[in-house]
Design a protein that fits this description.
This protein is an all-alpha fold and 257 residues long. It is built from 13 helices and no strands. The N and C termini lie far apart (59 Å).
Length: 257
């Protein structure tokens, strides 16, 4: 059978399964198995079981449950609330004011938990009620959170980077190091967009609150120390060569406790 025809058949099967609501992982596994059974004489079951076991038994994947655990611990603590209170005095003077808290908080939290889902749940639980109570635009508040929460995919320690590193046989530590600068650039672009939007839509941004004296700002910053310490413990241990990406996850869980 022609190669293009085989590709078309495989694509149709995959689209039908996805349209039927089958999970992506099961769809890909099923399509791969059917392709080998229909268009190859290789032992499909043996090959697939060997590949699945080889990928899932990687030591690097042990970091996944640990980083998920870290996100769950952070969700149950008051670190997110302390981070909001510590950042508020510093961001109130920016164009767009406290709407930037979603971006900065998501960036900081992503550097600790490694999970976009945990970042969205934890930061959103604190910032959305507070921002809406202060009169910020609901669509922009939720949209800035939805966009900024994706920083968890890029800023290390990223769970997606661990999965990709294992699948592509790439150094996870190097992936983590490579994700820092693009993550910071993306945060700057998000904040730049929000600043421009606020200047174009001044009616949707509440008036500036009373200016906070510099000494009170510095005193409020003390609430950021725990989350910054966690960042140093997780990311710093990797960059300084003290721990691998997998070991850093254990360091992070220990630091949380």
């Amino acid at each position: 059978m022609d190669v293009s025809m085989i590709g078309l058949i495989v694509a149709v099967i995959m689209l039908v399964l996805l349209a039927s609501g089958v999970w992506v992982a099961i769809t890909l596994m099923s399509v791969g198995l059917l392709s080998m059974l229909m268009f190859s004489h290789a032992p499909a079951a043996t090959i697939q079981s060997t590949v699945i076991w080889g990928q899932s038994s990687s030591w690097a994947l042990t970091a996944l449950p640990l980083f998920i655990w870290m996100g769950e611990i952070l969700y149950r603590t008051r670190l997110a609330k302390d981070m909001f209170e510590g950042l508020t005095p510093w961001l109130a003077g920016f164009p767009g004011r406290l709407i930037h808290i979603n971006v900065v908080s998501c960036g900081i939290f992503a550097a600790v938990s490694g999970s976009s889902a945990a970042t969205t749940a934890t930061i959103g639980r604190i910032t959305i009620p507070e921002l809406l109570k202060r009169g910020y635009d609901e669509k922009t508040t939720i949209g800035s959170l939805a966009g900024s929460s994706t920083l968890g995919f890029l800023i290390p320690p990223s769970i997606i980077m661990i999965v990709y590193g294992v699948a592509a046989d790439v150094s996870i530590t190097r992936l983590f190091i490579a994700g820092v600068l693009p993550g910071i650039m993306l945060m700057a672009l998000f904040m730049g967009y929000l600043a421009i939007w606020s200047m174009l839509n001044p009616s949707k941004v509440p008036p500036r609150e009373a200016r906070v004296p510099i000494l009170q700002r510095i005193w409020a910053t003390r609430k950021l120390f725990p989350i910054v310490a966690l960042m140093i413990a997780v990311i710093g241990s990797i960059y300084m060569g003290i721990a691998t990406a997998t070991e850093a996850a254990a360091v992070g869980v220990l630091a949380h406790c």
